[in-house]
Specification:
By secondary structure, the chain is α+β, with helices and mostly antiparallel strands. The protein contains 16 helices and 13 strands. Strand 7 and strand 8 form a beta hairpin. The termini are far apart. The structure holds flavin-adenine dinucleotide (FAD) and iron/sulfur cluster (SF4) (2 copies).
Length: 399
């Protein structure tokens, strides 16, 4: 006999937007607690239960090999390439590979819907998660909303709609929670397309960052921390403003990043089937990490729209990382002329390709390790994954 009782989680109550989340100040507003899947929060929340090994094995068939330098840094993968769209999508964050994959999957009937994030009608950076059912709705979600975004808040609609094939686009903390609850969504097939993510902020934090760093914060339509060690701001009139990393006002910006993101070790989105970022690719190119066969399938559907090249690596990041640790810790800000000069020198002789990606991972993991150690010492051992401990262990850290 088939039981007509609804699954247990449907009886749980979503939290109201203003109420405190179970992860308290570490909550990254992933959206899970805005749904009845809050039922699973103790296991699913990235900040309450670190479980990379188990979820890597569930998603990719094995956990990462810590003795393989590439896997240690970039996670389980079967391929890695640099790519860009032959015809970039106007207004995308980079060349629009993420939006293209999602559009193609809808057009070819591989999925019925795509979880992605558009912007609110009143704020270009205000996140508004949706389940897109047409390529037009996917394209309306192109470009980063560089703020915490409750992407999983639409998950109840998936189960209620009876949808069987779904693509979810998201950042690491969202995907960790999604992997824990995916078996309860009633799907036949889930595809996960991830982007790397680091240094995210609340909407108020974003305003502070723009006002502290850009000459014209109100006209910024898009920004990125680029591989040339500069922040590139694109303005409404199409002009580009660049600010060297080393010239950022570290004192003012020290508390701008969300506590969740200061405690995050999932920079390269370990649990997605396919990851599309830029950090391991030459300037102007995107970086693609294929984690499993599902990811390969997704990439194959758009391959003819891409030009590609192998990933490369040059330079040695280690000394630069070691020097940057006390500089960040003491909130050292260089005068702009020195910052510009340093930017030019480091761009010429500094780490490139995968070595740049390692530079960025090392700098963020050491900073975040110190943050957790100082602010949540009781969580340190359990919350920091083994791969991050090994990476951080290469450096001498202040107390
Ligand atoms: P597009 O075609 O423009 O599509 C962008 C997609 O991102 C959309 O589908 C949208 O739904 C989704 N999205 C936008 N904002 C969010 C959000 N807040 N949360 C979840 N999903 C979102 N890559 C790196 O290599 N290194 C980094 O340090 C890095 N930091 C990032 C920080 C943030 C906050 C985000 C959102 C992304 C970051 N990325 C980083 C990824 C990178 O900036 C691009 O998003 C990625 O390369 C895809 O570019 P695209 O042109 O293919 O995307
Ligand atoms: Fe809930 Fe997500 Fe916040 Fe964790 S990060 S408390 S799962 S909303
Ligand atoms: Fe989530 Fe980590 Fe990105 Fe913050 S940095 S939004 S915690 S993936």
């Amino acid at each position: 006999m088939i039981s007509s009782n609804p699954p247990k989680h449907q009886k749980s109550k979503a939290l109201k937007p203003s109420s405190r989340r179970p992860a308290k100040e570490l909550c990254s507003e992933c959206g899970l607690c805005d749904t009845y899947y809050i039922h699973y929060v103790k296991d699913a929340c990235a900040f309450l239960n670190q479980q990379f090994d188990r979820l890597e094995t569930q998603s990719h068939g094995r956990s990462r090999n810590l003795d393989d330098d590439r896997e240690l840094y970039f996670g389980v993968h079967q391929d890695m390439i640099a790519a860009r769209k032959v015809q970039p999508i106007e207004g995308a964050q980079w060349t629009g590979i993420v939006s293209t994959i999602a559009c193609e999957m809808l057009k070819q009937g591989k999925v019925e819907g795509v979880v992605c994030v558009q912007n609110s009608p009143t704020d270009r950076f205000g996140p508004q998660p949706v389940i897109a059912r047409t390529p037009e709705e996917v394209l309306a979600a192109r470009v980063n909303k560089p703020t915490l975004s409750p992407n999983l808040s639409v998950l109840e609609q998936v189960e209620q709609s009876g949808m069987k094939r779904l693509l979810v686009i998201g950042v690491g903390c969202q995907i960790q929670a999604l992997r824990e609850v995916e078996k309860n969504l009633g799907l036949e097939k889930l595809y996960v397309l991830g982007t790397p993510c680091v240094d995210n902020v609340t909407r108020a934090g974003l305003q502070k960052f723009l006002e502290t760093t850009s000459k014209s914060p109100e006209t910024v339509v898009h920004y990125e921390f680029m591989q040339d060690f500069r922040v590139h701001f694109k303005h409404e009139d199409g002009s580009i403003e660049t600010v060297p990393f080393f010239g950022l006002n570290t004192k003012k910006l020290k508390d701008v990043f969300a506590p969740s993101c200061m405690s995050c070790f999932d920079y390269t989105n370990a649990l997605a089937d396919l990851v599309v970022g830029y950090m391991g690719a030459p300037f102007g190119w995107q970086w693609i990490v294929v984690r499993n066969e599902t990811g390969q399938e997704m990439l194959d559907w758009v391959m003819e729209q891409l030009e590609t090249q192998p990933v490369a690596s040059s330079g040695d990041r280690r000394q630069a990382v070691q020097q940057s640790i006390p500089a960040y810790d003491n909130a050292v800000t260089l005068p702009m002329w020195a910052a510009k000069l340093m930017g030019v020198v480091i761009e010429k002789i500094g780490p490139k390709g995968l070595e740049y990606a390692r530079f960025s991972i090392d700098s963020h993991f050491t900073r975040n390790y110190l943050y957790v150690k100082r602010n949540h010492p009781e969580k340190l051992d359990r919350h920091v994954p083994e791969f991050a401990k090994k990476i951080v262990g290469q450096y001498k850290l202040p107390d």
